[in-house]
Amino acid sequence: MKKLILITVISLFLISCDPIISYNYFVNNQSDKSLVFRYRHGYADAKDSLTVCEPHKITLIETVEMRGANPHDEKENFLKSFDKLNIKTIDSGQVLKNIYIRNNWTYSKDIKYFGIVKTGSNNYILKINNDDLKK
Question: What stretches of the chain show up as alpha helix (H) in DSSP?
Fold first, then answer.
């Protein structure tokens, strides 16, 4: 009887908690110029944000957390968290690489478990080098 009560309590705890998936967006800036990412989320009253990516460094642009389970590649919907997203060099130069094309980003996932439910993070990395900048 004690085991049944324990199993019931643990089950209720697991069912009552919503697992979270993180979406992490990184830029691997292998160019000689600083890059500026400007973005806005798709929720009400969101304001523009920006992140500066220094040359020859990997920079976390944004982490977005959502309820859900089973981290997986969102394919063409991988930027669904953003209402607006663009990139320029620090001196307002153009970046030629199309950041909206999924194949221009590398995907990886970090799986964790919440009980028996898969949670964790989806990681998207955009690599920019000097050839991707307008001369």
Answer: 2-16
CA 1/CA 40 separation, integer angstroms: 53
Residue listed under structure tokens 């919907």: 77
Contact by Cβ (8 Å): 134, 93: yes
Strands 117-128 and 105-114: antiparallel
At 22-48, the pLDDT tens digits run: 999 999 999 999 999 999 887 667 788
Residues whose CB falls within 8 Å of the CB of residue 121, separated by 6 or more in sequence, listed in order: 21, 22, 23, 24, 71, 109, 110
Sequence length of the chain is: 135
Task: Take residue 9 and report the two structure tokens written for it.
Answer: 């309590």
**Helix runs in 17-127, H state only:** none
Question: What token pair was written down for 3?
Answer: 């085991």
**101 exposure class (CB count in 10 Å sphere: 0-12, 13-18, 19+):** exposed
Q: How far is Cα 104 from Cα 28, in angstroms, rounded to an integer? A: 12
Q: What is the pTM of this model?
A: 0.82
